[in-house]
Amino acid sequence: MGDTGRAPRPIRTGQEPTPMPRLALYALVVCALAVAAAVVSFVQGSFLGIVWVLLAGLSSNMAWYYLRRAKAEKEAAARV
Question: Where are the transmembrane segments (predicted)?
Fold first, then answer.
């Protein structure tokens, strides 16, 4: 028959969804490691810590983005 314009529903495999998206979790780990590296760099007197601070900021924004995207997808799936 004709196309209804709706996206196909995801196949349910019986597995529980992960509580946090993997990419967000990885970004949080990178953020924590970058903060630790920045602290070590600054304690040693190196200005390379500035690069680590920038990396921590980027990775925290990525984690925020992936968490928000997962939340929006979950809400959209609940509405269907």
Answer: 23-43, 49-67
- Asked if the structure places residue 75 within a domain, the reply is yes
Query: Are the CB atoms for 66 and 27 separated by under 8 Å?
Result: yes
Residues 62 and 26: beta-carbon distance below 8 Å: no
In order along its 80 residues, the chain shows pLDDT tens digits of 556 666 666 665 666 665 678 999 999 999 999 999 999 999 999 999 999 999 999 999 999 999 999 999 989 888 87
Give the three-state DSSP class for 77: helix
Q: How many domains does the chain have?
A: 1
**62/3 Cα distance (integer angstroms):** 36
- Contact indicator for 32, 59 with CB cutoff of 8 Å: no
Range of the domain at 60: 22-79
Domain membership of residue 56 (yes or no) is yes
Q: At residue 2, what is the residue type?
A: G
